[in-house]
DEAD-box ATP-dependent RNA helicase RhpA
Amino acid sequence: MSFSALGLSAELLRAIAAQGYTQPTPIQSQAIPAVLSRRDVLAAAQTGTGKTAAFTLPMLQRLSQSDARHRAPRALVLTPTRELAAQVGESVSTYGQHLPLKALQIFGGVGLGPQTTALRRGVDILVATPGRLLDHVSQGNVDLSKIEFFVLDEADRMLDMGFIHDIRRVLKLLPAARQNLLFSATYSREIEQLAVGLLRNPLRIDVAPRNTAAETVTQIVHPVARDAKRSLLSHLILNGDWQQVLIFTRTKHGANRLAEQLERDGITAAAIHGNKSQGARTRALAEFKSGALRALVATDIAARGLDIDRLPHVVNFELPNVPEDYVHRIGRTGRAGADGTAVSLISPDERGLLAGIERLLGRRIDVQRIDGFAERGATDETLQADVRRQSPAPRKHHARPRADGREQGNQRAQTAHPRSHARKTTNGRSHGGARPRATV
Ligand code: AMP
């Protein structure tokens, strides 16, 4: 299958070729023809699948074919985070470089002034986070009544971040006749409800999550005492000669502290999280991409939507409370067919979280003890026995961050279920047994 067979215009094909893409990804080959034929789409696809191009390319084509003449925006893409808005905005500019369409990114953390000026001059495509968009609406800077094309990107994350009311407020401002696309990494009852109210006869597309599709990502668990995590991390980076590693912590404070400690170990590092200014985040990301920084320490929300090509190493310094976040985290590595490793440093108190992740993945993650760091007395067998014992109850709802969408400083750990002793993992495989123990 080629891009030209999907019905895209010569201008778009030229931009695609310049990116070096030779063939569409599965989500692109399904979504592009559907969107061009004006259908609504409900797509389960996460970052790394090529989902941004899957909606951006046909959106650009649809807009360039219409002869509407007014200054109000005709397409709106809502994203949960500033980073994702910036990344989608960049894709719109890249793919639309040969088309006479104007795009604007609107997100918080930067001044309203330049955005207001740009809005007044007139734009075709708005890529926005909900809060800042509504700020502009309330100041009368933007008219959403001419929107023909609406995209809700990473809808599950939007709901997790408490944006549902903002989304509903935005929807009320849009005209009834429009095309709608909803992208979400996961489906839940809330997403279904949102989709029912938003989409008309949508084409439903499911693409395999990267963690099951991408055999290129090697996932490893290292058991370690909590207070030995930092020295183990430095050991892995220095001994493995890792030059680019994205590290996840659960809290903003933890991210700061870890970045400082890594620096003390001679590893160039910076932290990015919701308390950092947009300028500091952009700078850290640019330095990390260029190789000036070896380690980037991030919280889940700050890392959402980061697009770093061929990231070789991702480390879970702490496991996330929500198993789906593990999938998002490891989706940062092994992209576009490149090899990658996702390493999790697991202290004894995190074994219940590990069990929840393995249940979601439907498989076990290999355990490797590292001489001198593995917690005393923890063999693979005792680790797996603990995983079984601490296996949490099936989760009904995500742990929700604060309703204002900002990260929590201190999230509560997921608690073990008291009756979980007899519960089996979803893959039904035995946890014990004499698996060879790898030492790296
Ligand atoms: P996304 O899922 O939108 O975050 O995209 C993930 C990455 O895949 C981005 O770095 C894109 O530049 C890249 N990409 C998107 N479409 C293709 C394609 N058809 N072939 C190769 N790479 C692609």
About this structure: Residues 51-65 form the longest helix (15 residues). Residues 21, 24-25, 28, 47-53, 307, 309, 335-336 surround adenosine monophosphate (CB under 6 Å). The first strand starts at residue 41 and ends at 44. The two ends are 42 Å apart (CA to CA).
